[in-house]
Amino acid sequence: MSEANWYVVHTYSGYENKVKANIEKTIENRKLQDQILEVTVPMQDVVEVKNGSKKQVQKKMFPGYVLINMVMNDDTWYVVRNTRGVTGFVGPGSKPVPLTPEEMKPLGIKEPEVVIDFEVGDTISVKSGVWEGTVGDITKIDPHKQMVTINVDMFGRETPVEISFTEIKKMDF
Fold first, then answer.
1. pLDDT tens, 102-120?
2. Domain for residue 138, yes or no?
3. Higher pLDDT pick, 8 / 60
4. Is 116 domain-assigned?
5. Could you tell me if 19 and 62 lie in one domain?
6. Strands (E), the chain
7. Average pLDDT in the 21-31 region?
8. Of 52, 78, 125, 150, whose CB count within 10 A is highest?
9. Residue 33 clears pLDDT 90, i.e. is over it
């Protein structure tokens, strides 16, 4: 499975919350929770002065835009692109460009911190995916990509294979 990234979606101005609600409803209906992880309309607190009194209100940081954390594939692209009120992804042509970590920092979006209970040398069992049922020793851990590398026996040779954190289970001996 590919890695999830943050993408910017352009909407009709004033339709940001409606687009967010529509995408969330579609995620639920099509069971895409594992591919479209989060939909957000970035807000900021602003102090407005009206008739001499100060009032704190929330305003959209980017009117006309919605941020989506998703795995980009044909299904997710189609769902988002064909949501009522969406005019397109931000990026050249029809190819969406994910936000970089530097671009996400001022938005207050942080990468989730992953706590793992295994280390290099531990024996794990693959509980789902193509390698389901395979047992192997961890040779490398990549917390940023949320992947571990194990060696599997393929045609009589040790072959390194990357497995997602969500697909493994630590073996208890």
1. 777 777 665 555 667 778 8
2. yes
3. 8
4. no
5. yes
6. 5-11, 36-40, 43-50, 53-60, 65-70, 86-89, 123-126, 135-142, 147-154, 157-164, 168-170
7. 92
8. 150
9. no
* Structure-token pair, residue 25: 């409803």
Say which CATH number the domain at 143 has: 2.30.30.30
Q: Is residue 169 a contact partner of residue 127, using CB atoms and an 8 Å limit? A: yes
Res. 96: pLDDT tops 60: yes
**d(C-alpha 95, C-alpha 38), whole Å:** 20
Q: What's the structural domain count of the chain?
A: 2
Q: How far apart are CA 20 and CA 66, in angstroms?
A: 7
3-state secondary structure 79-110: HHHCCCCEEEECCCCCCCCCCCHHHHHHHCCC
Do the beta carbons of residue 90 and residue 65 sit within 8 Å? yes
* 130 shares a domain with 57: no
Can you say whether the dihedral through the CA atoms of 117, 121, 124, 130 is positive or negative? positive
For the chain, what percent of residues have pLDDT higher than 70?
91
DSSP-based three-state secondary structure for 153: strand
User: Taking the model in full, what pTM does it have?
Assistant: 0.60
Q: Which residues pair with 125 in a beta bridge?
A: 135, 169
- Distant-in-sequence, close-in-space partners of 77: CB < 8 Å, separation ≥ 6: 89, 96
Look up the domain containing 134 and give its range: 123-170
